[in-house]
Automatic annotation (TrEMBL), chain A:
<protein>
    <recommendedName>
        <fullName>Chemotaxis protein CheW</fullName>
    </recommendedName>
</protein>
<dbReference type="InterPro" id="IPR036061">
    <property type="entry name" value="CheW-like_dom_sf"/>
</dbReference>
<keyword id="KW-0145">Chemotaxis</keyword>
<keyword id="KW-0963">Cytoplasm</keyword>
<dbReference type="GO" id="GO:0007165">
    <property type="term" value="P:signal transduction"/>
</dbReference>
<dbReference type="GO" id="GO:0006935">
    <property type="term" value="P:chemotaxis"/>
</dbReference>
<feature type="domain" description="CheW-like">
    <location>
        <begin position="16"/>
        <end position="156"/>
    </location>
</feature>
<dbReference type="GO" id="GO:0005829">
    <property type="term" value="C:cytosol"/>
</dbReference>
<dbReference type="InterPro" id="IPR002545">
    <property type="entry name" value="CheW-lke_dom"/>
</dbReference>
<dbReference type="InterPro" id="IPR039315">
    <property type="entry name" value="CheW"/>
</dbReference>
<dbReference type="Pfam" id="PF01584">
    <property type="entry name" value="CheW"/>
</dbReference>
Length: 164, 730
């Protein structure tokens, strides 16, 4: 309890936030930990016909049907394998529950606002719109993904667009 | 605290209250209005007004306020209800519903409609009561013979009468309050607020006297409203502690009238008001009032006659308050969550069961017993939880008396509505979706089914036609019947019309087949398109809606005796009887209700048509043969049709054969929405969770057929598939 309070105070003091760091191939990404509901293994995914290739299908999360997105396919990574290390990060965005497949989860980090640099205005596969910034941590670079924006975007085809 | 949080509760309550109001209005016996019912209607209007005021829905508040005043006169017997007045009240109720909807959607209600209804209500008040809504009748010296002539329910100007009619709404235990005179003291109220308050008091009764300053302002009020009512209204503007309301003795007899200051006020107000015109119309109304009732009632006998209903009304209010605590209002999501959890429990239980069944019973007796017990408890629990979603059919049936009343008036027919099995329960989501189809069927019966009174008489039937709505459980289904004793369907007319519409018909068709024709699109045999029905867009929609709910509809008809439409629906949409099938390594669920039969096709029965298309001959019928693995792009599925199983399915009136690799089994599945976290998927209606915890998709029978036809119709089959892919992506 006291740890949490301290963390909360720290967050207010320095405008720092906690991020869950995960890896896709050799790259390191981070998402706001408050969006993460849980982490589980990749198993029992039912394929959905006629869906884009990065949507692996749906799975049963304690009675809730949850779509599973493989970010490695979405980001055009070369090596896409499903093995013991492959995990699914279950995130809660825009009142929806979505699972994202990643190569591994490394740790939880606190980044203060001065550690986050603005994202460069380029990127063909991952538009800067979906990035909150780049986190620099000694010699590591974390790509901080605005997971809510990314998953509700039109190109992810997860959400029925209002206009349609 | 954010007041908007309570909006939804208010809307729900107001809706229920409006429903109550309508029901009471319809049930009201105009010759002898039941005071308890009048009170109930009044209370409904009053509660809505209070809530609307609290939340600042001013249009709603004003409309209900006017209605409430009229209702108040009605329950005091000053306004004699007639059919057209009740019609107006019903119209106002509809208007209130519209206003409520507008507020619910965050919009302001239509000001024109509001102005119109205000006008109509005010006009009614003027015509019937001889004064505007909200002001008390002008006291006047009453000619003695009129006192004797009037029924106790007419505008009571005589002091004795007045006291009596006041007594009707007063709280009996408050003896002083019987006089209807109240002293309202306003403490520390600003001038602006005071004006508002005095105006509001004027609406509640007659302000007899007012004086004082900002610190202490005294108003003497003669009003039929109780202290609590007045306080409730005033509290919208001031704090309760700024108010002091006390009942005071009224100057009822000549002596008090002579000496009391208060008596001067009414006298002044008589002179101020445009009395001549108003009282003239009041006179006219009284002259029109049923004279035969009046002479039996002498002025002296009014008191006891009026006191009795007042007591009854009070008792009714208490009864109602007691009944309310028997139910609780729970958001649907909470119930759905419980249903989900119980579904999970059932899955876990069947997993355990599977494991336990592999054990040696002798060695693990207690465990196996425990598993059996768990299974039974889990099923019981599931059943009880499912029953929470169930609501009685009364919820649906209760809206038809109004429709029948409106339509019979419009059509000039005499029709009696009978409802049976109102307590039969059905899933809430289904009751909402069955209302529209049922309304269509009822309209049809009223318009085309039941004949005009004269025609009926000529045919030797009672002038009043009968429309019966009934509901009953039949196995896992509910059977809803709409039955009329009208002329029945005309076989010849339907056949002629069907031929005219280009449908293939023959005279040798059985009656049942002929009746099914009326479900075809654009079909109506009504000689004239009326306001009510006959445009030919009804029955096909009815059938489609009912099928979308997993039900079906059939018609029975006897010439000259009537028509019965039977709608059969599953009790719930949350559970589905499914057949699990396999294609490649994937498992899918087919709704069992759509499965007609399954067979292994032989090469002789498969015909090709126009290259790619295949037909399967099943007992002299050629059905399109659709391979599931083609539609869903399943790898590793059996390509040779003769090694597959063909499941004959029926959807939206069309049959086709679906090729699958294997049948796995039949089971009840809990239906899970795919759209909660994902989106609509072509060819898939929903998902479910199998015993091993994996997800299986439930196939959308009609959509598969549609997808197949889309592809078949396009010569560039591959391109279409590609563009569909893009559709999904974009």
């Amino acid at each position: 309890m006291s740890d949490m309070t301290q963390a909360a105070e720290a967050a207010i003091d320095t405008q720092s936030q906690e991020y869950l760091v995960f890896s896709l191939g050799s790259e390191e990404y981070a998402v706001d930990i408050l969006k993460v509901q849980e982490i589980r293994g990749y198993e029992n995914v039912t394929r959905i016909a006629n869906a884009p290739d990065f949507i692996k299908g749906v799975t049963n999360l304690r009675g809730v049907i949850v779509p599973i997105v493989d970010l490695r396919i979405k980001f055009h990574l070369d090596k896409v394998e499903y093995e013991g290390q492959t995990v699914v990060i279950v995130v809660n965005v825009a009142d929806r529950v979505v699972g994202i497949v990643v190569d591994g989860v490394s740790d939880v980090m606190t980044l203060s606002s001065d550690q986050i640099k603005p994202a460069p205005e380029f990127g063909e596969t991952l538009s800067a719109d979906y990035l909150s910034g780049l986190g620099s941590l000694e010699d590591r670079m974390l790509v901080i993904v605005d997971i809510e924006k990314l998953l509700t975007s039109e190109e992810m085809a997860l959400v029925e667009q209002q206009a349609q | 605290m954010d007041i908007t949080e309570f909006y939804e509760t208010f809307f729900e309550e107001a809706e229920e209250l409006l429903g109550d109001m309508e029901r009471h209005l319809l049930e009201l016996d105009l010759d002898e209005p039941d005071p308890e019912q009048l009170n109930a209607i009044f209370r409904a209007a009053h509660s809505i007004k209070g809530g609307a005021g609290t939340f600042g829905f001013s249009v709603l508040q004003e409309t209900t306020h006017m209605l409430e005043n009229l209702l108040d006169y009605a329950r005091q017997g000053e306004l004699i209800l007639r059919t057209d007045i009740v019609d107006l009240f019903l119209e106002t109720k509809d208007m209130l519903n519209d206003q409520l909807d507008a507020y619910r959607n965050g919009a302001e209600p239509d000001p024109e409609a509001f102005a119109r209804i205000c006008q109509t209500l005010k006009k009614l008040a003027l015509e019937e009561l001889g004064h505007g809504v909200g002001s008390e009748p002008e006291a006047d010296t009453v000619p003695p013979e009129r006192v004797a002539d009037e029924p106790p329910s007419s505008a009571a100007e005589d002091k004795v009468d007045e006291e009596a009619s006041e007594g009707q709404t007063q709280e009996v235990q408050d003896a002083v309050a019987d006089s209807g005179w109240l002293r309202v003291v306003l403490l520390n109220v600003s001038d602006k607020d005071r004006e508002l308050l005095v105006e509001e008091l004027g609406n509640l009764g007659e302000v007899k006297e007012q004086h004082g300053d900002a610190a202490r302002y005294e108003v003497v009020l003669e009003s039929a409203s109780s202290r609590d009512d007045i306080e409730a209204v005033m509290c919208f503007i001031v704090e309760p502690e700024q108010l002091d309301i006390a009942a005071i003795a009224a100057p009822t007899d000549e002596t008090t009238q002579g000496e009391a200051d208060a008596a001067a006020a009414p006298a002044v107000s008589q002179d101020d008001t445009p009395a001549p015109e108003a009282s003239a119309s009041a006179d006219a109304e009284q002259a029109a009032a049923p004279a035969e009732k009046a002479p039996t009632q002498a002025a002296s006998s009014d008191k006891p006659a009026n006191a009795a209903p007042a007591n009854k009304g009070g008792g009714g209010a208490k009864k109602k308050a007691g009944a309310e605590s028997a139910t609780i209002r729970v958001p649907v999501e909470k119930v759905d969550q419980i249903i989900n959890l119980v579904g999970e429990l059932i899955i876990t239980q069947s997993m355990l069961d599977q494991t336990a069944s592999e054990l040696d019973v002798a060695a693990h007796g207690p465990l196996v017993n425990g598993m059996n017990l768990l299974q039974r408890n889990a099923r019981d629990l599931q059943e009880s939880v499912m029953s929470i979603r169930m609501v009685p059919m009364d919820y649906v049936f209760s809206r038809f008396p109004r429709l029948v009343r409106d339509l019979t008036g419009k059509l000039g027919k005499e029709i009696e509505l009978v409802t049976e099995g109102q307590s039969t329960e059905l899933d809430k989501s289904l009751t909402e979706r069955i209302i529209d189809p049922l309304t269509h069927l009822v309209r049809n019966s009223l318009d085309h089914g039941i004949e005009m009174p004269d025609v009926r008489e000529a045919a030797g039937k009672p002038r009043t036609g009968q429309l019966t709505l009934s509901a009953q459980h039949q196995g896992g289904n509910i059977l809803i019947e709409v039955k009329d004793d009208g002329g029945g369907l005309s076989r010849d007319k339907i056949l002629a019309k069907a031929a005219h519409n280009g449908l293939t018909v023959s005279d040798s068709m059985s009656d049942d087949e002929v009746w099914q024709l009326i479900f075809a699109a654009g079909f109506s045999t009504a000689d004239q398109v009326s306001d009510v029905s006959g445009r030919g867009v009804g029955m096909d929609v009815v059938k489609r809606n009912i099928q979308a709910m997993g039900g079906h509809v059939e018609i029975q008809s006897w010439p000259g005796k009537g028509t019965t439409t039977r709608v059969v629906l599953p009790l719930t949409l949350a559970i589905l009887d499914g057949m699990s099938i396999k294609s490649g390594s994937e498992i899918f669920i087919l709704p069992l209700s759509a499965v007609l039969e399954s067979l292994q096709p032989s090469n002789d029965d498969i015909y090709s048509m126009a290259g790619n298309d295949k037909l399967l001959k099943v007992r002299d019928e050629y059905l399109p043969l659709i391979a599931l693995h083609d539609i869903l792009h399943i790898d590793g599925a059996e390509q040779d049709p003769t090694q597959c199983i063909a499941v004959i399915l029926q959807a939206e009136g069309r049959r086709y054969a679906l090729l699958v690799d294997d049948l796995v089994g039949q089971q009840q599945v809990v239906v899970k929405n795919l759209e909660t976290n994902y989106r609509k998927v072509p060819a898939i209606s929903a998902a479910t969770i199998l015993g091993d915890g994996s997800v299986a998709l439930i196939l959308d029978i009609a959509d598969i057929n549609r997808l197949h036809r889309q592809r078949a119709n396009s010569p560039k089959h591959a391109e279409l598939t590609a563009s569909r892919q893009e559709d999904v992506v974009s």
